[in-house]
Amino acid sequence: MEYKVTVATGTSEYSGTNNYIYLTLVGERGESERTMLDNPGLDFCRGAVDDYTVKSAADLGPLILVRLEKQRYWVEDNWFCRYVKVSVPGERCSYTFPCYRWLVGDKVVVELREGTAKKISDDTLPLERSHRTTELLERQKIYRWLAWAPGIPKCIDAKSEADLPQDVRFDNEKRSDFEGSLQYALLELSLKKLAIKFGKSWNDLDDFKRIFWKLRSPIAEYTMNHWKEDSFFGYQFLNGSNPRMITRCKELPSNFPVTGDMVQSSLIPTTTLKEELKKGNIFLIDHAVMDGIPANVIRDKAQHIAAPLCLLYEHPEKGLIPIAIQLEQKPDKDTPLFLPSDPPLAWLLAKMWVRHSEFQVFQLLSHLLRTHLVVEVICVATLRQLPAVHPIYKLLAPHLRYTLEINCRGRTQLLSPDGIFKRVVSTGGDGLLILAQREYKVLTYRSLQPKFDFLDRGVTKLRDYFYRDHSLMLWDIIQNFVSGIVSLYYKSDREVEQDSEIQAWINDVAVEGFVDVPQFGLASELKTKEELITLLSVGIFTSTSQHAATNNGQFDWCAWVPNTPCTMRHPPPTDKDAVTMDLIMDTLPDISQSCVQMAITWHLGRAQPDAIPMGQYVEQYFTEPAALKVIDKFRKELKELEEHIIAQNEGLELQYLYLCPSRIENSITI
After folding, report:
1. pTM of the model
2. Cβ burial 216-227 (10 Å sphere, 16+ → b, else e)
3. 38 annotated binding-site participant
4. DSSP state for residue 8 in the 8-state scheme
5. Segment 419-475, tens digit of pLDDT
6. Residue 644 is assigned to a ligand binding site
7. What would the DSSP string read from start to end of 11-28?
């Protein structure tokens, strides 16, 4: 028997190899010859798709797996294999063996299962069962849990990205771009600082334009021109970088002594605060989580933190506007209530303090904890408990690409004792961990599901809440897609309950990953298809849509530093009449801090050159026509949503496009 074998090499830089590659076919009736794959000329070049002939003394029967071996030739040269395809002589059928893995080292052996997705109950041959077991045992040695810090989700056991296996590392192009773009941004702004002669503080607000550089975005420019306006301040709670905090206020908190007379001038003349509370038109931003967080010390100077409350009113003509601000949780003589009728500079500074708290909450809680760290738990559990042939592994794998490396880099480069947060952010140092621990204690699985999140916050009827509208549409599309895939492989709840690999996976997620969070609300076993579909939908929604909503706009909203300052260098004002422009300038980030804020938010928020848009599966783990049909339907629905969002935004001066599927990455890569 002669089998035609096609081998595809990766397309990224350094994917090819000059090492020896051997291949063996393994079928139900035996194995082929161990064949060195060697054609005239160069084999296994970057992007190559090479054909070979593999001989067997007899018909191997249905093929089970392909065994690949790599041996050194002169020097060690890693190889990335995309897939192997095998055509059977005399038959129309062919087999596809997805790989998408690196072969690293000398005399390394990788065995690939045929591409049909199978649960453990679908494998009846001893070879199939033993392959699953061996694969998972090897992975569990490589991918280990680590408690990076107490009181937050567990993560991958790696001191830095260099400790990660090659299979979960950035491609070379991604690595070069990631490191080069940050250096480019810092260099650009360092030159700006030199031009400004390293002054410590700005002289006035217009001075910030001196670092408002060539990489600015249309929304960043809009922000620069409108940031003082109350309606724009309110808009950002709906569609800015932290759109998950606003809640309906049914009654005023006891520690927020706002009276109707105080805010009457902000309401329409024919109503009262009491009436608007009943109607559901009063909303609250409460940053109680910031109360008592230790402030950073930067260059021997203490920074400052507030824990503000902000009351907002959905005005029938002006939209959502702030009507009262208190900068600390405990009202007293040194904690005044700020109102729109106050001296303009006092009201402006109060809003800046709210936006400063928004920076801390969105970066550390909405972005880091609730997307990056949540998805890392799912990623580690998937790598440890699901073999590559499992349908749920195939479903999740594209949505976990690069997440482990970007999280490792975040821990070492952003959050570490000498990281960027320590250099420029008011919660840098001890504060950021305490803040994350507080949020983790109250994190719930329910809040990660958008339908419940908006319902529980009482914001289902807020006007112009594009983040909500687009999130719900994306959730429905994702849930339909997940349901379609799950239903192909699980015909009943009993099949879910009896899948030992899925039960080990959920136990790893709930017990190992989300440890010490009693209110989280995720059971350690899955009993129904619906429970599995919901959890998978949460994982995919969080790694795509939710991450895009909090990450992709951070340069837009933070580039104009006064709109969202990363730190404050003076304490919150205690006397409204004492607020001057000099005080504001001395409070806002200095020149150096402002430059780093602009650089890091551009670096993290910009579109990634190698981004894979949502629903575009470059690595094709599924091979069955039925699964590919579900994927095609998913893509079609995403395209229709894209067209709807673009049409909805046509003519708007301030457009909300962060949740256009073409702008959402398939996974958390930045």
Report:
1. 0.96
2. bbebbebbbebb
3. yes
4. E
5. 889 999 999 999 999 999 999 999 999 999 999 999 999 999 999 999 999 999 999
6. no
7. SSTT----SEEEEEEEET
